[in-house]
TrEMBL record:
Residues 134-360 form the Sulfatase-modifying factor enzyme-like domain. The lineage of its organism: Bacteria, Pseudomonadati, Myxococcota, Polyangia, Polyangiales. Residues 23-46 are annotated as: Disordered. PROSITE patterns: PROKAR_LIPOPROTEIN (PS51257). Pfam families: FGE-sulfatase. It comes from Polyangium jinanense. PANTHER family: FORMYLGLYCINE-GENERATING ENZYME (PTHR23150:SF19), SULFATASE MODIFYING FACTOR 1, 2 (PTHR23150). One of its GO terms (molecular function) is formylglycine-generating oxidase activity. This is Formylglycine-generating enzyme family protein.
Length: 374
């Protein structure tokens, strides 16, 4: 009887010991993807959940509040909460970088970022000139006005050369990329002996070819005027102060002749960037010599403005051999260097007062995030 009772108690104790071991065993061998209940009814995160939270902390939204903007590579994203993929807002253009949740200028050295106009655009045309083309003896004055006022919207930013293309840069292009060398047919020619001066005696095709070798373009007429003024209607790139030889190289008195000993320094252009008082200042930096020094070829054909509002206008007419030149030169007066003044020249025109600069047009990048923009 005593032996039977002893065996019964041993059985009870063994059963109780087995029950005591079960919680410990279960918690130590829990399968991945399950959660262990706690005494208060909550769940302890499993290993996968913990890893996801850690990855979130290392992502573009680490340390940011919901709704904040951040950078994911070159894309701007909006943070939407822990454990969720951020929403794509936009991808920066190839002339921009993503910085602090916004697209910031990233033009190459020697170029200045010029922003888009925004939907309000800017006004081009001041009704200054009758449309005409040709020399004084031709008597051809065209018909109508050359610069009827109208609104222009530029939808993308661009990078503009900070200076006019120099003789030194042209020499490099001649040596490496097949550019045609300017002929040394004038005493004021800058190529090849004045490397820091604007290259001159270049026609439209020579200028256009140079820009294209560096994945750039001649500026459109609208880009050029927007870059020179910022759209506020100013008379000259620096504002309304009457031009002097501190602002630019131009002809202060009566022009003797287009090729005469005129200009602030007795004839011929100046070194690029010499007249800093005349710079057009953008947030990304100054652009030099948009007035005076040398005229600059632009992409558009010389045709009268229609007077109609336009978006990203480009007016190239293959059947017209005349193209727009802008900015005036060392051998032009204060009127010729007005930011709104339109000049025109035959496609093959090569003179010592005419050069050019280039722009780098923005291109779209491929989106780097999977989420659709909101």
């Amino acid at each position: 009887m005593n032996r039977s009772r002893e065996l019964l108690w041993l059985s009870v104790l063994a059963a109780l010991a087995g029950c005591a071991e079960q919680p410990s065993s279960a918690s130590g061998t829990e399968d991945a993807g399950t959660k262990t209940p706690t005494l208060d009814g909550g769940d302890v995160p499993d290993a996968a959940t913990t890893a996801a939270a850690a990855a979130e902390e290392k992502g573009p939204c680490a340390g940011k509040t919901e709704g904040a903007l951040a950078c994911d590579g070159e894309s701007v994203v909006r943070c939407v909460g822990a454990g969720r993929e951020p929403e794509a807002v936009k991808t920066c253009l190839d002339i921009e970088r993503c910085e602090a949740g916004a697209c910031a200028p990233a033009c190459p050295e020697g170029e200045v970022y010029v922003p888009a106009t925004g939907p309000a655009g800017f006004k081009m045309g001041k009704n200054l000139s009758a449309f005409g083309f040709g020399n004084r003896k031709s008597g051809y004055h065209g018909k109508g006005r050359a610069d009827l006022p109208h609104k222009v919207v530029l939808t993308k930013p661009f990078c503009m050369d900070q200076t006019e293309v120099t003789a030194g840069a042209m020499k490099k292009c001649v040596q490496e990329k097949g550019c045609k060398a300017p002929q040394r047919t004038d005493r004021w020619v800058t190529y090849p002996d004045k490397p820091d001066y604007p290259v001159n005696l270049v026609d439209y095709p020579m200028s256009k070819y140079y820009c294209e070798q560096y994945e750039k373009s001649l500026p459109t007429e609208a880009q050029w005027e927007w870059a020179a003024t910022g759209g506020d209607g100013r008379s000259w790139p620096w504002g309304e102060e009457e031009p002097t030889c501190e602002h630019t190289d131009f002809t202060q008195a009566i022009l003797i002749s287009p090729g005469g000993d005129s200009g602030c320094h007795g004839g011929g252009p100046s070194k690029v960037g010499t007249h800093r008082k005349g710079d057009k200042i953008w947030p990304d930096g100054p652009i030099h010599d948009l007035a005076g020094n040398v005229w600059e070829w632009v992409l558009d054909s010389y045709v009268p403005y229609s007077g109609k509002d336009e978006v990203d206008p480009v007016h190239v007419r293959s059947n017209i051999g005349n193209y727009v030149v802008r900015g005036g030169g060392w051998n032009r007066s204060g009127r010729g260097i007005l930011a709104a003044f339109r000049g025109g020249a035959i496609v093959s025109y090569k003179v010592p007062g005419l050069g050019f600069r280039c722009v780098r047009n923005a291109k779209e990048r491929a989106a780097t995030t999977a989420s659709a923009p909101h």
